[in-house]
Amino acid sequence: MGGGSQQDRRKADATMGEMIFRRSASARVAMIGAGQLARMTHQAAIDLDVDLGVLADSPDDSAVLAGAPWRLGSPNTLADIEAMAANADVVTFDHELIPGEHLAKLEALGHRLNPSPAALALAQDKLKARRVLSARGFPLPEFSPVSSPGEVSEFAEVHGWPVVVKSPSGGYDGRGVHVIENHAQAAALLGGHPAADATWLAEQHVELAAELAILVARTPSGKTAVYPAVQTFQRDGICRYLQIPAELPSATLDEATNVAMSIAEEIGATGILAVEMFVDASGRLLVNELALRPHNSGHITIEACETSQFHQHLRAILDWPLGPTTMRGPAATVNLIGESTGADPSQRLPEALAIPGVHVHLYGKAFRAGRKLGHVTALGRTPGEALGLAQAAAGLLTGS
Ligand SMILES: Nc1ncnc2c1ncn2[C@@H]1O[C@H](COP(=O)(O)OP(=O)(O)OP(=O)(O)O)[C@@H](O)[C@H]1O
Ligand SMILES: [Mg+2]
Q: Has this prediction a pTM greater than 0.90?
């Protein structure tokens, strides 16, 4: 148990033994994980007087530092998850690194989970997602399960080098994604891996013309709302910046929107579903991966859309009416990623705030090179103008 004096205050309002939720709140949501997504969901929860209780690995987790009610515990420990879910109206997730059997147990105990374990499994396991989406006819890069260097080379004989080899689960920010140029590299990766018999996902290396993310909110009763397509820009597997509107042909954007809406229906998504997509050199749309939670690409909705993804996620999982997703104007978001310069954005705020019109979000995370420490959003007359402002502020904050 964590929470200190916050816990004591909350106990005064509690009648059901030791608990962290207020009975008087408009709703009680348990979120597994307490990172920046939980932190920003907590911000939205405050507006609605929803109690968002978070299961935190550490008292230094981003959402705990922001004052969300919390418990200390591990997403790998069923008892910790159960304790968090007790007295919550609904359980939801800040990340997908939770054992599937724990989620099944929780569901069997009668807890309401949004997203459902079955839907979340598609975000937990990229190979499973590929299989399910391919069986339903969604456009995907060519793929195959592989478990030996020889199988990677066989895949390359058909689809060419390089081959993208992914760890089916546990990856984020490009960790777990390997561009393999030849058999020797395949042998180094698969042969040298501790679980040498593990199954990996091999994918055709797509020549990327653009990357998109479509966010769909869906309620348990089937109401949906879709956001304008976000165009994302990655370097070394990490999204550096993103913008709306996406500057791609409207037919591509319409198709992307339709694909994301269909996926939301087919998998019975609840809450926010983010569908990451590729546009290849010939303009063809391919689904990359799914996330069943607020998504990095959706941070732009805080300022740039009528309803932020965090408000919308709460509304969706609680089966409340969804808000309008209309774009307020062209906008761009730059992720603040710890640079090797060692500059900590939290120490450089005033300079960035001196740029008119930029919205700085810091996550309260300790500086580490390569770590997402915050983001900056700006609106402008064009996405390019917005990006210029956001990049200027981000440059000051990270010393890049
Ligand atoms: N098959 C592919 N062909 C070309 N580039 C790819 C391919 N798969 C992934 N990438 C590049 O690597 C990035 C990260 O891949 P992916 O989204 O699968 O990994 P991740 O680490 O799970 O990412 P996230 O941080 O979004 O969870 C993609 O956004 C894309 O830029
Ligand atoms: Mg991705």
A: yes
